[in-house]
Hints:
Elements: E1 10-14, H1 19-30, E2 34-39, H2 42-54, E3 59-63, H3 69-83, E4 88-91, E5 98-99, H4 107-135, E6 137-142, H5 157-177, E7 182-189, E8 201-202, H6 227-238, E9 249-252, H7 256-259
Parallel strand pairs: 1-2, 1-4, 2-3, 4-6, 5-8, 6-7, 7-9
Helix pairs in contact: 1-6, 3-4, 4-5
The structure holds nicotinamide-adenine-dinucleotide (NAD).
The site of nicotinamide-adenine-dinucleotide (NAD) has 28 residues, from helix 1 and helix 4.
Amino acid sequence: xxxxxxxxxxxxxxGAASGIGLAVAGAxxxxxxxxxxxDNRAEKVEEATLNLRAxxxxxxxxxxxxxxxxxxxxxxxxxxxxxxxxxxxxxxxGINGVWARIEDITPEEFDETIAVNLRGSFLTIKYAxxxxxxxxxxxxxxxxxxxxxxxxxxxxxxxxxxxxGQVAMAKxxxxxxxQFGIRVNAICPGYFPSDxxxxxxxxxxxxxxxxxxxxxxxxxxxxxATTEQVGDLAxxxxxxxxxxxxxxxxxIDAGVSLVIG
Length: 261
Ligand code: NAD
């Protein structure tokens, strides 16, 4: 068995019906994990479950809204009941929400982004931890370059605050849960093609602030971004290859956030 093998482990991944979460579910599943595939879009959950099962991956579909405590709690219990234990949790579900000038963001819009991205991460981890404590495990959060290294996407204030909060959560919980053999890390992707970009609610056709132009390009590495690359990073971080790594934040953005701040 190599150090990347997740044989015998059960992984719950939120926002797993598309994009990064789906790529993570595939990477974990192909390396032996049984998957709890959680998302709030029931049809997408069904489609993703069928596709992963066709590859021979064991999947428990979980339809839940990560911002709702009762739904997350019962989905977590459903997964533990199905496979007997939970070893890995990836709080990945997220929305871009409203990108606008602060005067144009309603209190409800601010709350919605925080509820899904930050409260959702809290609930996902909170209800899984009692199961992880039984044998130890690994927690991952999908944060972002926005709010941690990039502050120039003016208008993305609720999103960036939620993503900064996830990094604080990862570090706080790494310290709290280390004694139970639970590692907690965050990943910060740059741009990856996914559904999330279509759902951004912009209140103005024009960007809130003109973007700076980088004549030589702002991407030090010229490789094309694919969600599978994030799946590979997540696999490494939850695997035994990373067993001495906790409380860390790993960027996966071709170096862009080193150029654009
Ligand atoms: P995506 O839209 O393809 O996937 C997000 C998934 O989360 C969707 O399937 C959606 O249905 C689900 N979801 C949304 N709200 C939910 C809720 N309340 N409860 C349960 N599930 C919910 O987008 P993605 O790009 O794969 O995003 C995944 C994560 O990666 C997000 O946290 C996002 O902020 C982060 N991220 C993405 C990028 C990027 O460029 N794609 C960059 C940095 C960070």
